[in-house]
Amino acid sequence: MLVRAVRSRHRGATTYRGAIYRGAALAAFSITAAFPGALGAQQLAKATPAMHTVKRGDTLWDIAKQYLGDPFLWPEVYRLNTEIIEDPHWIYPGELLKLPGATARVVAVTPPPAPAPAPAPAPTQNAPTRVFTNPTPPAPAPTQSFVAASGVRLGEFVAAPWVDERGGPRDPGYIIQSGELSAIASVEHSRVQLYDPVMIAPPPGALATPRGLYLSYYLGPFIEGFGQIVIPTGVIEVTRPQHSGEAAVARVLKMFGEVHPGQSLIAYDTTGAGVRGGPAAVDNGRMGTVRWVYGQPVLPSLQSYLIVDIGRQDVKTGDQIELYEPRQPKTEDRELAIPAISIGKAQVLRVTPFGATAIIIGHEQPKISEGTAVRVSAKMP
Question: CA–CA separation, 61 vs 301, rounded Å?
Fold first, then answer.
């Protein structure tokens, strides 16, 4: 019987954007190494092209599944591209990734039956009797409760949208135009790619020093009674500062979405990503609701961003929230009340006076949408 590790729906200490589970891949490798004679049928994966250009929404997991036929082979793609991929949790649109050759195979591993235990030797008259007065108790079975074990990841923090006052950040700079020159007059550079040069106007009063960094963004919807959604698109690095009233020259260093001329720029600030450690579970945490989900109408899943109406007075970066369906009381047609149903977990990344941005790190139910109830379930020290 073919055996394949089962995917978990909780993000652990190691993951990928969307879901990368290194432990399962290592487990399969360990079985193969320990039992080289136990390989089952080997199925040749379909011929793969030499390169893949990353598109928005791609993950190493999905790329391995598409080209190699098995998502658990994502480390093979990562190992070929370590000079491009700094962190396997994050890949960016426009990156050109090398792929394993057509000889890559998907291996289904059938573990051999466990060997029969050797018979215990007969005790001798002089053999001492060993008595265990305090045996080690078995490890407790895991529960559905899940608490993030580490601090906020830099890549997740920088790419996270947030809620701001109407109009977004005050006095931003902006991208003027692409720095690419085309030999074809009809070509219009309305969209730039990773590492493309761009001409920028820094925020008023900002010193566009060489290697200085800015965050590019555009404004999402304004939610009445709540705030303005701000959506980052990339990180812009200055390569030549302003001279005599000229634009500064920069390049697109990171991309989280499409980068266009006209998008706004603010100073690149990662102070909120410096938290470390894990949150501790709390009871009766502050309650709220999901007000906006990134990527709608696509159903959100692991690593999706959402914004909730819990502000910085009640939550901070690194805290954890639970998404749930509230308890339903009994009615005339139903004798028993329906208990609250847990939907998923999310880690808080950005916090403003208006609300908090969180990233989904685990879910048991598919229903995550605007209006979903949330509560603070774990707090950082």
Answer: 14
Q: Which residues make beta-bridge pairs with 67?
A: none
Please state, as a whole number, how many other Cβ atoms lie within 10 Å of the Cβ of residue 80.
15
pLDDT tens for residues 310-354?
Answer: 988 899 999 999 999 999 999 988 899 999 999 999 999 999 999
H or E element that contains 184:
none
Rounded distance, CA 340 to CA 45, Å?
A: 45
Bridge-partner residues for 325, per DSSP?
Answer: 341
Distance of alpha carbon 16 from alpha carbon 71, whole angstroms: 12
Please check whether residues 314 and 246 belong to one and the same domain. Answer: no
Structure confidence by residue, pLDDT tens digits, 178-227:
988 765 554 455 778 899 999 999 999 887 888 999 999 999 999 999 99
The number of angstroms, rounded, from the C-alpha of 57 to the middle of its chain's C-alpha atoms is 11
Three-class SS state of 228: strand
Look up the pTM and report it: 0.63
Mark which of 273, 288, 311 sits at the end of a domain: 273
165 shares a domain with 55: no
Residues 164, 197 within the same domain: yes
Range of the domain at 313: 280-379
Q: Side chain identity at 180, as an amino acid letter? A: E
Cα-flanking dihedrals φ and ψ of residue 24, to 5°?
-65, -40
Q: For residue 170, what are the contacts with CB-CB under 8 A and spacing of at least 6?
A: none
> CA 228, CA 163: separation in Å to the nearest integer?
5
Distance CA 87, CA 77 (A): 13
Which run of H or of E encompasses 287?
strand 287-293
Residue recorded with tokens 């970066």? 317
The domain tally of the chain equals: 3
356 beta partners: 308, 351
Task: Residue 298: give its domain's CATH number.
Answer: 2.40.10
Which of 78, 109, 140 delimits the end of a domain? 109
The length of the chain is: 381
Question: Which letter does DSSP use for residue 63 in this model?
Answer: H
At 241-293, the pLDDT tens digits run: 988 889 999 999 999 999 999 999 999 988 877 777 789 999 989 999 999 99
